[in-house]
Amino acid sequence: MTRRAAVLGSPIAHSLSPVLHRAAYRALGLTDWTYDRFEIDEGTLAPFLTGLGPEWAGLSLTMPLKRAVIPLLDEIGPAAASVEAVNTVLFTPDGRRVGDNTDIPGIAAALCERGVTRVGRAAVLGAGATASSALAALAGVCDGEVTAYVRSPARAAEMRGWGERLGVPVATADWSRAHEGLTAPLVVATTPAGATDALAAAVPERPGTLFDVLYDPWPTPLAAAWAERGGPVVGGLDLLVHQAVLQVERMTGVPAAPLAAMREAGGSALAAH
After folding, report:
1. How far is CA 167 from CA 69, 151, 164, 254, 268, in A?
2. d(Cα 61, Cα 244) in Å, to the nearest integer?
3. Is 66 labeled as catalytic in the residue annotation?
4. Distance between CA atoms of 51 and 184, rounded to whole angstroms?
5. Cis before 232 (ω within 30)
6. What gap in Å lies between CA 116 and CA 152, rounded to an integer?
7. Sign (positive/negative) of CA torsion 261, 262, 265, 271?
């Protein structure tokens, strides 16, 4: 039986997930596996799930489905529960739907790959769903305080709440002071394209590590300025590949997905874009 997987979201046409997963299937010799993409929003998610047959192994989820899917699942793992966000759905042989989150370990793995295993403090730019996953990953990396730079008091309260829940001491500051955060040993930028462009001029002389979760367009002005100053930069493609590696392993059951082949395929697709 052909085994199926796919990525769901809206908009979805830009997603690199099919490129990464198909590259993994090729490298692993999984000729009977397919991976597609479907334009699905909150209103069409439940009927889509209901219509899936036994050939389905798993789904990758992007916005706006990471929280909307939770009531439709039979179980969610501890990582997904910790941030109330599911980016992976696995289908068990008995038909149960299990939610997981590979963004959190993906962030940690991408940092570890660049030698970032412990830092004394960190800064997070932004306060969306990716920011909460970043906080969860920082719980295992950062020994001290994380300062979140946000645009509203409501977002600030939300980030402090996530910090309490995840066991991470979080301080908040207004976005107008985001340039101050660039002096932290680790800076995680979780904002949409363009939001950090004005900060490029404020990169310090001797920067720490920047983790910018964007991958298209790349490099961002902030990432480019950071690299010019000699600071290590972890990009969105690193995160995308590491979280996809975990998805492939959990969906197919293989012990080790082909990280290098997946990264090469993703890089080639971006270069051709």
Report:
1. 25, 23, 5, 33, 39
2. 11
3. yes
4. 48
5. no
6. 30
7. negative
Q: Which residue has the tokens 């979760």?
A: 213
Could you write out the DSSP letters of every residue in 138-170?
HTTTBSS-EEEEESSHHHHHHHHHHHHHHT--E
- Name the token pair of 10: 């809206």
pLDDT, tens digit, 9 for 90 and up, residues 120-178: 999 999 998 889 999 999 999 999 999 999 999 999 999 999 999 999 999 999 999 99
> CA 34, CA 29: separation in Å to the nearest integer?
12
- In terms of C-beta density within 10 A (0-12 exposed, 13-18 middle, 19 or more buried), how is residue 266 classed? buried
- From the candidates 4, 37, 66, 121, give the one annotated as an active-site residue: 66
pTM of the model: 0.94
3-state secondary structure of 41: coil
